[in-house]
Amino acid sequence: MSVLKHVGVLSAAKIMALLGLVFGLIYGAFFSALLPMMPGVSAFTTMGAVGLIIGGIIFGAIGGFIYGAVVAFLYNVFAGWIGGVQIDLV
Q1: How many folded domains does the chain comprise?
Q2: Across 18-22, 31-35, 39-43, 49-53, least confident range
């Protein structure tokens, strides 16, 4: 068994930014598909759909980066206090 004592904050943040980008794209596409069903949105449906997708991608990536950095930092602090996670590297 090995113990994961430290996580690179920047590397974790970059990975989480990419995951946030992917999920932002999925959520943006899902909600843009629902946009035509909403009352009173007919004039700007296409612009709104594109805006939801682009906004989902941008805010998903930014939020994922921040979330990844905070979680990795907190993991490093807590692992210093109580020890890291035990993993079996094959």
Answers
A1: 1
A2: 39-43
Strands (E), 1-90: 2-4, 85-87
DSSP category for residue 36: G
8 Å CB contact between 72 and 7:
yes
pLDDT one-digit tens code per residue, 65-84: 999 999 999 999 999 999 99
Q: Which residues of 23-57 are buried (b: 16+ CB within 10 A; e: fewer)?
A: bbbebbeebbeebeeeeeeeeeeeebbeebbeebb
Between vectors from CA 19 to CA 9 and to CA 66, what angle results, nearest 5°? 40
Indicate whether 42 pLDDT > 70: no
3-state class (DSSP) for residue 58: helix
Q: Which residues pair with 85 in a beta bridge?
A: 4
Range(s) of the domain holding residue 18: 2-87
